[in-house]
Amino acid sequence: LVMAAAALGKFMGRAGMSIELIESEEIGTVGVGEATIPPIVEFNRTMQIDEAEFMRATQASIKLAIEFVDWTRLGHSYIHPFGQYGVPMEGVYFHHFWLRHRARGGTLSHDIFNPSTVAARAGRFARPMPGDPSPLPPVGYAYHFDAGLYAAFLRRIAESHGVRRHEGKIMDVRLRGEDGYIESVVTSDGRTFEADFFIDCSGFRALLIGKALQVGHQDWSHWLLGDRAIAVQTENVAPPRPYTQAFAEDFGWRWGIPLQHRAGNGSRQPRRRRVR
Questions:
Q1: Does position 174 have pLDDT exceeding 80, yes or no?
Q2: Rounded to two decimals, what is the model's pTM?
Q3: What is the mean pLDDT of residues 195-211?
Q4: Mean per-residue pLDDT for 58-75?
Q5: Least confident of 29-33, 191-195, 203-207
Q6: pLDDT of amino acid 170
Q7: CA 270, CA 228: separation in Å to the nearest integer?
Q8: Is 63 known to be catalytic?
Q9: Integer angstrom CA distances of residue 148 from 45, 153, 156, 257
Q10: Pairwise CA distance, residues 66 & 85, whole Å
Q11: Is the pLDDT of residue 227 over 80?
Q12: Is the pLDDT of residue 43 over 80?
């Protein structure tokens, strides 16, 4: 919600558009969105957010990869990194050279050709520098951060770009009689907000797109092995790792996400099966 508000405020507010943000402190967040992927870096750069300020405000740490533990077999782990492997040579992509190396009996792991994997295993990170003449591929990275702190951080940025925030819970959605489009929303304290364009960020409730506009829900449960998640925050017992960990378990899988001030832990569990 606040990501959309901040981006619209920055890029549309100067066009003379009035942007209203309606959210309620009474409605909690899901609380498991603490590990990100590289597009979040591009979003922050596009918003011209100072990375050091962002990391201080959200208690963030660097994420270079995801380590999968016990997924192939017990005792085995592998790293899924960000960024590319090797560099193209003479117009040929790197993986072709590595496959030829393996076909000729070579034993070098492809991991050593990915800077994010090497840095993750070493517990190190170096921020990419503009205009870096190094022939090595850039280090791809993202962040671990406190999702609640990030929302508060973006809220301040949105308001700095002219977005007007309103505390309130949306209780009703009114449609235009002539075409059935949304005309306004009404909060629990009776305030009415009209607009030309609405973004529904009401989560699982889908108040606008689902309840009001009757857009059907697509059931993907036959594709998804898990339908439950449990999240728990604990103290850090070691310096934050620059990668997320995902552990395979008999009951599903669990994750470990290191932040500056704490660790995020939790598990995804298989969906319940009906007994007939």
A1: yes
A2: 0.86
A3: 91
A4: 96
A5: 29-33
A6: 93
A7: 7
A8: yes
A9: 20, 9, 13, 15
A10: 16
A11: no
A12: yes
Residues in the chain: 276
Instruction: Kindly tell me if the per-residue pLDDT of 275 is higher than 60.
Output: no
The C-alpha angle 168, 171, 172, rounded to 5 degrees, equals 125
pLDDT in tens, 120-140: 999 999 887 777 777 777 789
257 token code pair: 């996400």
- Only one residue has tokens 């994420």, namely 63
Report DSSP letters for the chain, one per residue.
-HHHHHHHHHHHGGGT---EEEE-TTS-------B--THHHHHHHHTT--HHHHHHHHT-EEE-EEEEESSSSTT-EEEEESS-SS--BTTB-HHHHHHHHHHTT----GGGG-HHHHHHHHT------TT---SSPPPP-EEE--HHHHHHHHHHHHHHTTPEEEE--EEEEEE-TTT--EEEEEETTS-EEE-S------GGG-IIIIIIT-PPPP--TTT-SEEEEEEEEE--SSSPPSSEEEEEETTEEEEEEE-SS-EEEEEEEEPPPP--
Mutual orientation of helices 147-160 and 2-12 as an angle, nearest 10°?
A: 20
Angle between helices 2-12 and 39-46 (to 10 degrees): 40
**Which residue matches tokens 């962040």?**
143
Question: Looking at the predicted structure, is the pLDDT value of residue 276 above 60?
Answer: no
Catalytic residue among 10, 63, 169, 211: 63
Q: Which residues of 169-183 are buried (b: 16+ CB within 10 A; e: fewer)?
A: ebeebeeeeeeeebb
